[in-house]
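Format notes (please read before filing issues)

Several people have asked whether sequences and structure tokens are stored in separate files. They are not. Every record keeps both together, in the order shown below: the sequence lines, then the token lines. Line labels are part of the format and must not be stripped during preprocessing.
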Amino acid sequence: MPELPEVETVKRTLNALITGKQIQNVTVRLPRIIQRPDDIQAFASMLAGHTVVQVERRGKFLRFVLDGLVMVFHLRMEGRYGLYRGEEPLDKHTHVIFHFTDGTELRYTDVRQFGTMHLFQPGEDLLLPPLKKLGRSRWHLLLHRNGSRKLSREKAPKSNRFCSIRNMSSASAIFM
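Then the structure lines:
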């Protein structure tokens, strides 16, 4: 599983590469990666025509904020994204391809096939799994007294309270 700094690096790289690109269509080669909606054709058709506004990170999840939708991804063990020209050959472990109107493709590859993708209406992604299970970022908890009080009331040892994924979303993988 990628560590938090690696996920942050992926987020920054994707922001530089795909922000402003419009999705022409989507090819799903391994349907079980798509968790929401459960209809693969609905997933692909809902994304067609949308533009990537920015890529954000919430814990180890990536949020692709589009103009009117939010995609939530988890790379799991070995998931990777790469931006390619459309005519470049596909890797045998490429499972989802986002075809952009400029002829480039964002390809998701995952040898172990553990990654997940979820599609939501804006704001809905934070209220439903998988992001609903995450707490606020540790920086938010440190900067706001209510978060500090919440942590101080728990009965677990301090290190467990501070690093619990239920209390914050940016804990290291060692605690997950």
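For reference, the curators noted about this record: Strands lie at 23-28, 34-36, 52-58, 61-66, 70-74, 80-85, 94-100, 104-109, 116-120. DSSP finds five helices and nine strands in the chain.
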